Lrp/AsnC family transcriptional regulator
Amino acid sequence: MNIKNFEDSLLDSYDISLLAALQRDAYATHQQIGEQVHLSASQVSRRVQRLQAGGFVRRYVALLEPQALGLGVRAMSYVTLTRHGGDEGAAFETEIGSIPEVLECYSVAGESDYILHIVCADLAVLSEQVLRRITRIQGVGSIRSNIVLNCIKSSTELPLGHLGR
């Protein structure tokens, strides 16, 4: 959703409360959410449909536990391309989209061109399969990676406090 649509949309305090409740537990029934935000289940249903149609809710997912699934290594990798004027960026982005271990890829300004959030079973997979595959993408000049030792904070909940102003 673009900013123009956001500014044209009016979110009241119930909408904001609904979005917050959905972020905490999208599996909750409309009745359960209604009890939290003081609306009937039918009102919750109508508002949720409107929020979805308005582009405020992208999708619903189950958040899996990587460690429980044997994915014990996380890395943040910083990729720099050799050139910025050709097709290197598009080629990189297309190829990165096909690597399942790359959970997130951000195009950034600064020392690197991209930041990748990678999850793997072990360091051997990270080194031999994922990073080696990335270094072979046309236009990749360098990769610098940091291995995550401990996750201090991880959240999928967006801050909504600014919406109530």
